[in-house]
Amino acid sequence: MTRELIEANEHKTLCEYAVFSDQSRGRQLPCEPCEMRTVFQRDRDRIIHCKSFRRLKHKTQVFMAPQDDHYRTRLTHTLEVSQIARTIARCLRLNEDLTEAIALGHDLGHTPFGHACERELNRLMADGFSHNKHSLRVVDVLERDYKGLNLTYEVRDGILCHTGDQMPRTLEGQIIRLSDRIAYINHDIDDAIRAKMLSESDLPACCMEVLGASHGERINRMILDVVQTSSDYKSIRMSKDIGKATDELRTFLFEHVYVGTVAQEENDKACDTVRMMFEFFIKNPDRLPQEYRTHIDLYGKEQIVCDYIAGMTDLYAIKLFTELFVPRVWTGLDI
Known about the structure:
Blueprint: H1 3-13, H2 39-48, H3 51-55, H4 74-91, H5 96-105, H6 115-124, H7 131-146, H8 153-160, H9 171-194, H10 205-211, H11 215-229, H12 240-258, H13 267-283, H14 290-293, H15 296-299, H16 301-310, H17 314-325
Helix pairs in contact: 2-5, 4-5, 4-9, 4-11, 5-8, 5-9, 6-13, 7-8, 8-9, 9-11, 9-12, 10-12, 13-16, 13-17
């Protein structure tokens, strides 16, 4: 099926509140249209094939540098968000391709070691740091050797506004805000139970009565509620009761998983790792990789150091820290 046929089919099948691919506000730089793919399908493919997307598999979700294969990483989180978001978009007859592209790109700017090191970079950077703004910088600037992916306005808006005070301009972008929360609340419970930090019986009974007793029941009920409550297309939202129970469950996770627990005992070390590397490269910019040094004059030393560190995986950051700061064991001279 050619792009023109896909675009024509969107006008037949999507609701009037959807963003139609042939009505996108376009890209920052001119780009010849693809014969087969719509602009949003093309954005999805550009994100999937970029280096930042591949690095998500070795970035912390909650449990730092997990050795157990079954704990979530930033990549598996992204895939779960995409699955939830696509389901909601399909049920509401919104643009599923746009929704998927935003979902796949929303966390590209996350730091190694999760939110703890996001906060550390925010402290170190004069203008602050947030992963959603850096995700936009990744797709606008950093990918393709500081040329960027040249994504559409709607995808860029959804990535930037998937968290924070600013709401996305599209309903598809608003879907990501809720899908992100649905995903992490439920999979973080699952991981915490796997880690024996929680048991099913620890979960607040009042929330379980509203949302469901099992992982699958909770996700299904949240998704169904979003679809039913948002069917007037005024905004993408939950009902009062489901939203209240979801917020209470999130608060429970902050108290029992995210803050001051065994999962976060290494946070201070991780933040020290980021801070020491940041200070090292500020003093020694000549030690940065060439592809970063080249752009110091344009973006400034602090920003380039931040770009380098924020793009690291957990394992790469630990390896580089060891090379920079841990003495090598003396083994004697080879004879």
